[in-house]
Fold this protein.
Amino acid sequence: MLVYHTPAFKQDAELAGFFKFSAWIALDQPDTDIAVFIYEIKAGGSSALLTQDMLRARYRKSLREPILVKPGAVERYDFDGFNFIARRVAKGSRLRLAIGPANSKYMEKNYNAGGIVAEESGKDARTVNVKLYHDSAHPSAVYLPIAVSPAGASH
């Protein structure tokens, strides 16, 4: 897992809506499953999972048409299937983004080989290396659903 943290919030913040994460990623295999988790890390160190999303690389451009990855190609992956949230994030809290492999007994196993996933087995398994870019040419970013107070509302 790769883990990133925001600075501590300087004041309470209202989040309401859907997160979005755009990531520039390169793989060395034709397919893999990637999971993204967003947590609130409270000032005391406890955490609360806010939302999560998962993406099979072959469906990065369309859920209807699988397109295998060209190994080594740097492409944008848009994670925009997060659940709706409404939460006040307290002053002193941080957000944590964790991105890594999606591998669970509750999901169909993807062996990263690029074949028909339902027909693959351990003999087809390939280790995949995933590189996340976040530089000026590849601006990976998390978009927060910050709620705006109605004009004239006081806090």
Q: What stands out?
A: DSSP finds no helices and ten strands in the chain. The two ends are 38 Å apart (CA to CA). The first strand starts at residue 2 and ends at 5.
